[in-house]
Amino acid sequence: AHGAELVLVKPRRLMNLNGLSIASAAEIYNFRPEDIYLVHDDLDKALGKVAIKLGGSARGHNGVQSCIGALHSNEMTRLRVGIGRP
Question: Whole-prediction pTM value?
Answer without folding.
Answer: 0.88
